[in-house]
Amino acid sequence: MARFRKTVKFARFNLAANCFGGRQRHEGTWQAYLGRRGPLVLELGCGSSWLGLELARRHPDHRILAIDRKADRMQQAAYRAQTERLNNIAYLQCAIADLMDHIAARSVSAIWLPFPDPYPKRAQSKHRLSGGDYLKIYARLLKIGGQLYLKTDSADLAAWTRRQFSAQRSFGLLSYSTDTENIDDQSDISILTAYEKRYRAAGKTIHYLNYRRISSRS
Predict the structure, then answer these.
(1) Of 39, 76, 166, 174, which sits most exposed with the smallest number of CB within 10 A?
(2) What domains can you pick out in the chain, each with its CATH number?
């Protein structure tokens, strides 16, 4: 039964006009769907894409590209976007390691990493989306002055991420906070994902990091 439900979700994703990168039954690209105007914002590891949907609602002049390697996670958000006529958000099935195959260098204004898997074991550190070769990819994608945002409930991941960014020259830290509840509601930082709502209800501390692309070095 579970496999059948996933098959249905994959089929729905491939049929949606705002979904790309899988086995689409329509012609076109996310670039053609979103057009060329407006800042390009990426939501990586988007899952159900609560963040991406709200970004699209708040910023109709922005182009939001929500990305996850699993199409079944994104299909519900994709259809909600269509129902709400949010034509400024698209969904791309893609591994983060393969982003450069789909997105041009220096074309991205902002990258969001909402609650990435912390991969707590040391042997798993190469899979963490906030370090290693992934930072090189983000540096190549972002425009100079472009920003990267990360939220996590893992203090260890937050500390590790800060060390990773400090070890290279492409980014500068704009802010680090463990108190995002008191931020102005109009700020995009205040957008709560499903994970964040759950973590806050459990009394967990949320760590927020914001970096700026400051160098042309990749």
Answers:
(1) 166
(2) 2-213 (3.40.50.150)
